[in-house]
Amino acid sequence: MQPYIRAVTAATAYAFVTGKKVAGLYDHAAGRHLRIAAEARGEHLQGHDGDRNVRFGGTLPELRDTGDGAFLHIEVQGDEMRGYDRSSSGHFSAKVSERLVQLFDHAEGTWFAFDVQVA
Q: What sign results for the dihedral spanned by CA atoms 24, 42, 59, 106?
């Protein structure tokens, strides 16, 4: 899974699980702030990755990143989200807490953490 898709996925998870707007992320693995915004309404999501100047979103269970055309299949259950990144053929899972998203990239076999800035 590409690092920018992990970030988009983390923002998506937070928006769907909490119903709050994401105004930015801090990627602990990269050690930097990311200009990513996302908003979920029902089963619909719209988002913008300001660092790449691309949009992402769609209707569950399928979301699309317009930057490279990546598709994500997503299922939300309670405070968790899991899915499949079609561009890398990899599974992922995410757990959302108050202002933190922990994402497990199964292909990498590693956890990634993102602090969330809420709008």
A: positive
